[in-house]
Amino acid sequence: MAHPAQLGFQDAASPVMEELLHFHDHALMIVFLISALVLYIIVAMVTTKLTNKFILDSQEIEIIWTVLPAIILILIALPSLRILYLMDEINDPHLTIKAVGHQWYWSYEYTDYADFGFDSYMVPTQQLPSGQFRLLEADYRMVVPVASPIRVLVTAEDVLHSWAVPSLGIKMDAVPGRLNQTAFIASRPGVFYGQCSEICGANHSFMPIVVEAVPLSHFEVWTTLMEAEEL
């Protein structure tokens, strides 16, 4: 989760988020170089005493300021397109979970290895156990196995929502009447927090998303208990 006074992104918990962080750093370095060059040109033009009122154009400069931006755009576009394709790839998922947005909570359906579902509500502040996070903790977490490709089908029952977990590099719109899909792999065990990222009404900020990644053996025990509870 994010912490107070944090300047950067959350630590990556999936391969896609690591790629996004690398691309962010790559683009930021290009922005710094462009900013330094523009600042240098502005200072040089303001401070110089050289003037020539008879220069109307310069073929060399025209070529440079046309070709150089084109090269910079290519250096940004190619890694960006690569990550876009990686984010859209869904190859042979080990588990499919359906996430449905409601006003104002999420519900999850597991139908692959077991047949159960549950609603996930935010834990009210006055009921929070010590050490849990206000506005981020849910009574039921979406539990997934570590190092397994997970597909999430995202939709909504009433209005637009958005299922987003920053540390996993996921943000998928939940649209009524439409089934969107996204995928992720949790690289390490942990609890990862997110929130609805589409303004959906009065309690938009009170429908958190909590993904808990656990070892496969723990996940199998959890599914057995949840299925028994469903019965």
Automatic annotation (TrEMBL):
<dbReference type="InterPro" id="IPR036257">
    <property type="entry name" value="Cyt_c_oxidase_su2_TM_sf"/>
</dbReference>
<dbReference type="InterPro" id="IPR034210">
    <property type="entry name" value="CcO_II_C"/>
</dbReference>
<keyword id="KW-1278">Translocase</keyword>
<dbReference type="Pfam" id="PF02790">
    <property type="entry name" value="COX2_TM"/>
</dbReference>
<dbReference type="Pfam" id="PF00116">
    <property type="entry name" value="COX2"/>
</dbReference>
<keyword id="KW-0460">Magnesium</keyword>
<dbReference type="InterPro" id="IPR011759">
    <property type="entry name" value="Cyt_c_oxidase_su2_TM_dom"/>
</dbReference>
<feature type="transmembrane region" description="Helical">
    <location>
        <begin position="27"/>
        <end position="51"/>
    </location>
</feature>
<feature type="transmembrane region" description="Helical">
    <location>
        <begin position="63"/>
        <end position="85"/>
    </location>
</feature>
<keyword id="KW-0813">Transport</keyword>
<dbReference type="InterPro" id="IPR001505">
    <property type="entry name" value="Copper_CuA"/>
</dbReference>
<comment type="function">
    <text>Component of the cytochrome c oxidase, the last enzyme in the mitochondrial electron transport chain which drives oxidative phosphorylation. The respiratory chain contains 3 multisubunit complexes succinate dehydrogenase (complex II, CII), ubiquinol-cytochrome c oxidoreductase (cytochrome b-c1 complex, complex III, CIII) and cytochrome c oxidase (complex IV, CIV), that cooperate to transfer electrons derived from NADH and succinate to molecular oxygen, creating an electrochemical gradient over the inner membrane that drives transmembrane transport and the ATP synthase.</text>
</comment>
<feature type="domain" description="Cytochrome oxidase subunit II copper A binding">
    <location>
        <begin position="92"/>
        <end position="225"/>
    </location>
</feature>
<keyword id="KW-0479">Metal-binding</keyword>
<keyword id="KW-0496">Mitochondrion</keyword>
<dbReference type="InterPro" id="IPR045187">
    <property type="entry name" value="CcO_II"/>
</dbReference>
<comment type="similarity">
    <text>Belongs to the cytochrome c oxidase subunit 2 family.</text>
</comment>
<dbReference type="InterPro" id="IPR002429">
    <property type="entry name" value="CcO_II-like_C"/>
</dbReference>
<feature type="domain" description="Cytochrome oxidase subunit II transmembrane region profile">
    <location>
        <begin position="1"/>
        <end position="91"/>
    </location>
</feature>
<dbReference type="InterPro" id="IPR008972">
    <property type="entry name" value="Cupredoxin"/>
</dbReference>
<keyword id="KW-0249">Electron transport</keyword>
<dbReference type="GO" id="GO:0004129">
    <property type="term" value="F:cytochrome-c oxidase activity"/>
</dbReference>
<keyword id="KW-0679">Respiratory chain</keyword>
<protein>
    <recommendedName>
        <fullName>Cytochrome c oxidase subunit 2</fullName>
    </recommendedName>
</protein>
<dbReference type="GO" id="GO:0042773">
    <property type="term" value="P:ATP synthesis coupled electron transport"/>
</dbReference>
<dbReference type="GO" id="GO:0005507">
    <property type="term" value="F:copper ion binding"/>
</dbReference>
<keyword id="KW-0186">Copper</keyword>
<keyword id="KW-0999">Mitochondrion inner membrane</keyword>
<keyword id="KW-0472">Membrane</keyword>
<dbReference type="GO" id="GO:0016491">
    <property type="term" value="F:oxidoreductase activity"/>
</dbReference>
<keyword id="KW-0812">Transmembrane</keyword>
<dbReference type="GO" id="GO:0005743">
    <property type="term" value="C:mitochondrial inner membrane"/>
</dbReference>
<keyword id="KW-1133">Transmembrane helix</keyword>
<dbReference type="InterPro" id="IPR014222">
    <property type="entry name" value="Cyt_c_oxidase_su2"/>
</dbReference>
